[in-house]
UniProtKB/TrEMBL annotation:
It comes from the Eukaryota. It holds the Pfam family NAD_binding_2. It catalyses: glycolate + NADP(+) = glyoxylate + NADPH + H(+); 4-hydroxybutanoate + NADP(+) = succinate semialdehyde + NADPH + H(+). Residues 2-161 form the 6-phosphogluconate dehydrogenase NADP-binding domain. Gene3D superfamilies: N-(1-d-carboxylethyl)-l-norvaline Dehydrogenase, domain 2, NAD(P)-binding Rossmann-like Domain. It comes from Arabidopsis thaliana (Mouse-ear cress). The active site is at K170. The keyword NAD applies. One of its GO terms (molecular function) is NAD binding. Residues 164-283 form the 3-hydroxyisobutyrate dehydrogenase-like NAD-binding domain. InterPro entries: 3-OH-isobutyrate_DH-rel_CS (IPR002204), 6-PGluconate_DH-like_C_sf (IPR008927), 6PGD_dom2 (IPR013328), 6PGDH_NADP-bd (IPR006115), HIBADH-like_NADP-bd (IPR029154), HIBADH-related (IPR015815), HIBADH-related_NP60_sf (IPR051265), NAD(P)-bd_dom_sf (IPR036291). Belongs to the HIBADH-related family. NP60 subfamily. This is Glyoxylate/succinic semialdehyde reductase 1.
Length: 289
């Protein structure tokens, strides 16, 4: 199976590498073309524009940073729309809002192409290990044809119906994750300021009902003030903002998420946006100084 892949950031690079390692022929594009070099060493081909990738491949996956990037790759000069046509499938796995997905879907299907949104739950390590959770919606036949690729990229794929549902589910998942991370950060700081061992707190949490992979994986590094980016904080804050907008749209009160969003915004203002989203703990520390 041959696929195109647009976007080679932290997630896209790991995902496209997995496809290559599992026997897929992969043609890649990235705005900074030098980021394609490592993939080429593993057998990937490179195109100089999204349009060229679409022209070459029956199926093209995109994994981009935000709604602006997702729209740009489709609508700008040299973009997806220049070559999308009947017989071509476009799978956007970026985390965007439902409005963005709907706009892309309308444009793709208007040119005869098929569209699936497929945002993922999981960050760098699950992407490298092929353990993502895929939240797909849109063209059911294209979803089913994409299963061989999805099975390489993730441990389970959900089909959620009409376009927009995948985006909404992903924002809800990330809103819960961001709110948990902020509460976790407050707990670690509170333990330390109360004269308690935050390492012991981690052990206690891991033995109880609140034990989870995020606390177990992130906690030790947070206690060492180390935040290598698996999921950049600036993207987490973007997702909190989009989730809160979804809450406004549906008249759902979300005071916990709103407070967490303020903490992530504070962390961004401290210059921490490119670090892992667990660096939000620094905003909690700052507020107590």
């Amino acid at each position: 199976m041959e696929v195109g892949f647009l976007g080679l950031g932290i997630m896209g690079k790991a995902m496209s590498m997995n496809l290559l390692k599992n026997g897929f022929k992969v043609t890649v594009w990235n705005r900074t073309l030098s980021k394609c070099d490592e993939l080429v060493e593993h057998g990937a081909s490179v195109c100089e524009s999204p349009a060229e990738v679409i022209k070459k491949c029956k199926y093209t996956i995109a994994m981009l940073s935000d709604p602006c990037a997702a729209l740009s790759v489709v609508f700008d000069k040299g973009g997806v729309l220049e070559q999308i046509c009947e017989g071509k499938g476009y799978i956007d796995m970026s985390t965007v809002d439902a409005e963005t997905s709907l706009k892309i879907n309308e444009a793709i299907t208007g040119k005869g192409g098929r569209f699936v949104e497929g945002p993922v739950s999981g960050s760098k390590k699950p992407a490298e290990d092929g353990q993502l959770i895929i939240l797909a919606a849109g063209d059911k036949a294209l979803f089913e044809e994409s299963i061989p690729a999805f099975d390489v990229l993730g441990k389970r794929s959900f089909y959620l119906g009409q376009v927009g549902n995948g985006a909404k589910m992903k924002l809800i998942v990330n809103m819960i994750m961001g709110s948990m991370m902020n509460a976790f950060s407050e707990g670690l700081v509170l333990a330390d300021k109360s004269g308690l061992s935050s390492d012991t707190l981690l052990d206690i949490l891991d033995l109880g009902a609140m034990s989870n992979p995020m606390f177990k994986g992130k906690g030790p590094s947070m206690n060492k003030s180390s935040y290598p980016p698996a999921f950049p904080l600036k993207h987490q804050q973007k997702d909190m903002r989009l989730a809160l907008a979804l809450g406004d749209e549906n008249a759902v009160s979300m005071p916990v998420a709103a407070a967490a969003n303020e903490a992530f915004k504070k962390a961004r203002s401290l210059g921490l946006g490119d670090l892992d989203f667990s660096a939000v703990i620094e905003a909690v520390k700052f507020s107590r100084e």
